[in-house]
Amino acid sequence: MREKKDRRERDEQRQPRKLGRAIIYCFSVTAIAAIWIFAFRSYFEQYDSAHPEITWALPWIQSDTIIASGVYLWNETPLASPVSGTVRYPNGLGPVRVAKGAVVARVGSGNSFKDVRAPHEGYFVAGTDGSEGNWRYPVIWPGLDELPTASAVTMLKEGQSVRNGASVGKLIAQPQDLRFIGYADLVGNLEQDLASDRLMVKMDALDTPSRAQVRVYEKVGHRVKMHLTVPWFPPDAVLSRNCKMIIEAGSLTGVSVPETAVVVKEGNRGAFVLKGTEAAFTKIEGKSIGGARFLVTNGIRLGDAVIVNGHSAREGRVKLW
């Protein structure tokens, strides 16, 4: 019994020493690993700094575009049925361009019918939207409230029964200017373009920009209300008075580089540009243009070599290969 007691006491005395050796061992292994990781990272950071990825400044033109919502205005003539009966449309329901005097509708029954002729050349459409006679500039322009909305054209049908005096469609005189009233955000050079009557507009993203005539405009806080003559009048425009168009509000010309190349150093925005085999921080001007690109308008020229990762770049000699 005495021998067992002595052995237990010796084991209890060894436990703190074993625990201490285990702690020292773990600490040593952790320290060695940390030193290796630090040395490994330092080596590759030094290597990346001395062997940076290079790109070249590319030519770029950035246009500011605005989606303007508004309404169209035009002069139109409602056409009424001269008798009760079934209506037929010799030229179709439209919109279709017809000559003055052309038969746009024929109303009657059996062999008895009356023709409805175009009072002048223009676009004929066999339908109405309920705003005929009320959709005029003196009604829509005044005030700074949101613009009214009009219903889409409700088309009549071939062979439909109509009463005497009922609508059989309308005629939008041609040629005439298509006018636009709407609001747009004051972005880019929009205010200067309006003031100088140099506003460039297009119907959609695939259209070619054309110049619109500025009739009148009025600033409304961060927006502007405009009355324009637009440089188009397609037949389909008469199917809805509500519309949107794209305004080009100026453009910037320069070169583009990856956004990762642009950094702020001592309060100055710039990039590391190579001069031979030397990297030098160069102040730049410009703006982000999306797609992880930055448009430089001053400071970098076309064809300049720029370090892609500006945050890890350093001034001094670099190895290009």
Please work out how many helical segments DSSP would assign. 3
Mind telling me which CATH architecture of the largest domain this is?
Beta Barrel
The fold-level CATH name of the largest domain is OB fold (Dihydrolipoamide Acetyltransferase, E2P)
Span between termini: 79 Å
Give the CATH superfamily of the largest domain: RNA polymerase II/Efflux pump adaptor protein, barrel-sandwich hybrid domain
Uncertain stretches: none
User: How is the biggest beta sheet arranged?
Assistant: 6 strands, antiparallel, barrel
Give the CATH level 1 class of the largest domain: Mainly Beta
Form type = elongated
Number of strands: 24
Mean pLDDT: 86
Name the structural class: alpha+beta
Order of helices and strands: HEEEEEEEEEHEEEEHEEEEEEEEEEE
The percent of residues in helical segments reads 10-25%
Q: What does the radius of gyration come to?
A: 38 Å
Q: Domains counted in the coordinates: how many?
A: 3
Q: What portion of the residues fall into strands of 2 or more residues? A: 35-45%
Which descriptors apply to this entry?
conserved putative lor/sdh protein from methanococcus maripaludis s2 fold, six-stranded antiparallel barrel, elongated, alpha+beta, 3 domains, 18% helix, 321 residues, OB fold (Dihydrolipoamide Acetyltransferase, E2P), four-stranded antiparallel beta sheet, 45% strand, single chain, 3 helices
Task: Describe the overall structure.
The protein has 321 residues and is α+β, with helices and mostly antiparallel strands. It has 3 domains: 1-50; 52-61 and 253-317, Beta Barrel (conserved putative lor/sdh protein from methanococcus maripaludis s2 fold), CATH 2.40.420; 76-175, OB fold (Dihydrolipoamide Acetyltransferase, E2P) (Beta Barrel), CATH 2.40.50. 18% of the residues lie in helices and 45% in strands. The protein is built from 3 helices and 24 strands. The chain has helices at 2-50, 137-140, 190-195; strands at 54-56, 58-73, 76-80, 85-88, 96-98, 103-109, 112-117, 122-125, 127-128, 154-155, 161-162, 167-173, 178-185, 199-202, 210-220, 223-230, 242-258, 263-265, 268-275, 278-283, 285-290, 293-298, 305-307, 316-317. The strands form 6 sheets. It has a 6-stranded antiparallel barrel. Strand 6 (103-109) and strand 7 (112-117) form a beta hairpin. The longest helix is centred in the first third of the chain and has 49 residues, at 2-50. It is elongated. It starts with a helix and ends with a strand.
